[in-house]
Amino acid sequence: GGLLDGCSRPAQGSEMTMCGARRSLCGLMSLTILLHVAQIVLYPPLDAASQRSVRQSQPPATAIEPAILRPLATTAAAVRGGGGGERLMIVTATQPGPCTTRRGDHVLSLALKNKWQFATMHGHGMWLSSELLSPWDLAGQWNKVAVLAALMQPASEARGCASWLLWADDDVLFSDMSFRFPLDQYEAQEAWLVLWGDERMTYELGDSEGVNTGTMLLRVCDWSRALLEAMTRLASSSLRPVLTNHDQGGLVHLLHTAPELWRRHTRLERDYTMNGHWPSYTGAFTLGAATLRSPVWGSSALPVIVHYSGCQMCRGHSFNGTWTDRGVAECVAAFTANYIFADDQSLRRLGLRHTRLGMPGVRPAEGSPLFARHAELTRCMPRFLVVGTQKGGTSTLHYVLRSGWHPRVALNKGEKEVHHFSLDDNHAMGPARYQARWDGEGAQLGTCPGREDEVRGEVSATYLDYPRAAERAFALLPFAKVVLLLREPAARLVSSFNMRWQVEVCGKLTWTRRDCFKGLSSREQVKEHAVGPFQLAAALKVWARCQTPGGDGLDASCLGADFVEKLANRTRRERREIDVCLAALEADAPPLSLGRCLGLPILSQRKLYKRMEDGAYVYRSMYAEHVAVWLSYFPPEQLLVLPSEPLFERATVEAQMSRLAAFLGLDYKETNQEVLFSASPASVTGAPHENGREYVATPPPEMLADLRAWLCPHNARLAGLLLANGLVPSASDLSADLPWAAAPPGGPTIGCEPAPAGAAAPSTRAPPVTTAQPPLPTAANAETRHARDEGHKRRRAKGRPKRMNGG
Hints:
This protein has 31 helices and 18 strands. By secondary structure, it is α/β, with parallel strands linked by helices.
């Protein structure tokens, strides 16, 4: 009886000798963790059959004897330290094989990094297990009992100097990275087991949900060893089949049936949030804040740990009560926001900070050495980027900016578009070559010969929607202002196709005549202006089909039919591919990326350029996809959304440029207004800055209506994104600036939800759910994946969801 009353302590000298002998092993912990991280990240997923759990063979039924357990030797106590230090070891585990979902291994690696960061900040040890120590009786959730028992052994060198073990499930995250566990208080109270719990549910009712074993503290001593041994015996007893919630049910059974053995040294912690329920904390974090955005369970204090149990992110199907893939998506989004919140606390020690919750981008913190170095080397880089959209007025804006609209504005020399962040070859040349676009050959980073107060910028329409452009821009220019020109999506699509169709028919003549198809008078001319064998073959086919009876030109009606037919075919084919991807993404639950599903990031530069310029007409008009990516790196206050159409009208262009001047910090009184009302060299109609191409035909109204109806839900999503992030102040402003996003063009459209109406967006904005980095689905295997998901749902329907505890 006395053996179970508490934890006896050895002499101080013995303690120091044992700890000193083990301290040399502490430095190996980081290597152990790194190897496990490599195992998680690098090994490819196994097939479904390889992922099935090892079937359990039930041991013979035996009666549990809760009275006297055999004596165990006593281990050394720990070296004292502030908040635990080496006294505490964090213990966690992952499954032996890779996850069955694309993002599962990535999510688990983030959870592991979070625990490692907390341990590093406080000097704690850490042990990660990916082995099943006793798979025949202690598999699954019971494996923690085997791992803790092994580390609890008196002669365990792996434990190092720790006298406390903190078990943390793989799906828990530390939120308050500065928290210090009150180990001295627990030792003074002789509390050897500490976990969240409810007294009545545990001791009176014996409810398996009366505690949560996802996070628990155990003192290294005989009492704890006896408790773990009792749980081990229970796992192979006749009672196991009737225990609910696995090891958690086993622990509650012991606390409920033998309180005389276990209750005295067990503390059900309620003074701080040791095991928060993740839905309660969704949206409650504010980046960099020391308290919650709003109280949870009456407290604004940060939770120490939040448990994402029930999400099953590794398996990919939900046990959190929602029974839907959407539930997994919501959990992943909440997990990501919590991870960024905690990661930000750790990275600030390196002089880095995150820009937004749930988003991957980091930037140097102001005042840090890294910030100073980065600022010095990039002081001659652009301070603003006009990123698109293609055929959205970027040429018009470029003409205005380079023609002396404002004396402080300096655009790059040479051709209009630099494409530094969108094309691999250009980006590989490095930042010095990029700066040379303003300063010429021999430019040195940080040395700019121009005027000190000039505002450098560039206009590249490929930046908005090309893969990695936003990521690369943020890495080099994290404080740059970003300007987005958005044109009515269907009109942009047709304009983009018109340009490519003219290139296909006219070749090089496209760049010198806005009506190039009227300039071809012979087959030889078609060959003379060819830009490549594929273009030449297509142009000759059009010539053979549409040449006039005299053979001295092309028939306009035939060309118009060719234009409309090809526009219909290419957009129909592209929409079909996108629809398959959208269905796959819905089945797998966001946050995923449509661009990755379409396979864009893995294409070579040549193939990517061909795909984006002649095969992504619809995709490039889905602005919500692309704006969300830029918002995942740049905060909303660094983005300006301008409608394209007002730039083309004399009555509205001045107001648009006034908004741009204010955004860039320029004095509008210094602007040259004459530039706004002078036509560019390419203009033939007299309209300001008109440099568009003539259309050989106008798409039929029913085709445009069909395109707009298809795009309408994506426009509505864009509207919600802009309002939620304050990029458009209110719904009325949205209707004025982007009417095609505020309501379906031409009136209500079946299957299209209009943008949300209401007052101005609140000043405290919740971040949108956008993107994630792991490998994504392809359209080719969407049907197989759907069948798999349906199988998951049928199997889930037979089980019981596990209700979370916490608060």
